[in-house]
Write a structure and sequence with these properties.
Number of helices: 4
Radius of gyration: 17 Å
């Protein structure tokens, strides 16, 4: 017999998953920073690719949860996800053409992703949390 998770358990699991995913994203950016200091072109290319793919997975996970919570700002959040993904993909292309200073780009990228996490993501997490509170009380 399958047991179904309660809404509270689903929310808790999502929060833990998102926090873990944010940690993985930070780790990939730190890998890029470290590789940029010792120009290892193939490693930088692989890490850009890994970051791009992981962000897409992470963003899809967040968006699915926001949809389940009926988050009213979903389209705005999705647009920000697209901008971030496009910026990473564009940076990787520029790097391949030797048109990107990785050491200059990465701090800005890290700051943008951190701002996204602290502000934009927190807004949907707060909304979903309050919505869950209303459903459970």
């Amino acid at each position: 017999m399958e047991s179904k998770l309660t809404l509270g358990e689903l929310y808790k699991n999502h929060r833990e998953d998102v926090e873990s995913q944010h940690g993985r994203i930070r780790s990939l950016i730190q890998d890029l920073v470290a590789r940029a200091e010792i120009p290892e072109r193939p490693e930088i290319e692989r890490t850009f690719h890994a970051l791009s793919q992981y962000l897409k997975l992470h963003f899809a996970d967040e968006e699915q949860f926001m949809m389940a919570c009926a988050y009213p700002e979903l389209s705005v959040h999705e647009a920000e996800h697209r901008r971030l993904s496009n910026d990473i993909d564009e940076a990787a292309c520029c790097f391949l053409k030797d048109e990107l200073d990785v050491q200059h780009f990465l701090p800005k990228l890290g700051a943008r992703l951190e701002d996204h996490t602290v502000n934009t993501d927190q807004a949907y997490i707060d909304f979903c949390s309050h919505g869950l509170d209303r459903l459970l009380t």
